[in-house]
Amino acid sequence: MTESEKIVSLKSARKKNKETKPEETKSPEPVICSFCGRPNTQVAKMVQGPGVNICSECTMIAVQYLILEDKLPSGEAQRILDIFWSKLNK
To answer: How many domains does the chain have?
Structure first.
């Protein structure tokens, strides 16, 4: 996977045409996560929004927080979190 394939832009998601897919950004400069400060070259995926970027790791931390805030994650949710973190640590 090339570095440009790791960046997904949601800028087109705000358009009225719902049939368009998010564009892949082909930027020579690194895209920096607005939350952890890591560039797209150091993370699995990066999502670009209007004025903000979030990497896959920060996204999963946020999802994990939201799930665990209820103190009782469902078995399926916990399985997804376990798979993500185990693949990331390889």
So the answer is: 1
pLDDT tens for 36-59 read 999 999 999 999 999 999 999 999
> CA distances (Å), 70 to each of 57, 65, 67, 74, 85, in order?
21, 9, 6, 10, 20
Domain coverage including residue 61: 3-88
Question: Is-above-0.70 flag for pTM?
Answer: no
Q: Is 69 helix (H, G, I), strand (E, B) or coil?
A: helix
Q: How many CB atoms lie within 10 A of CB 53?
A: 20
Q: What is the SS3 assignment for 54?
A: strand
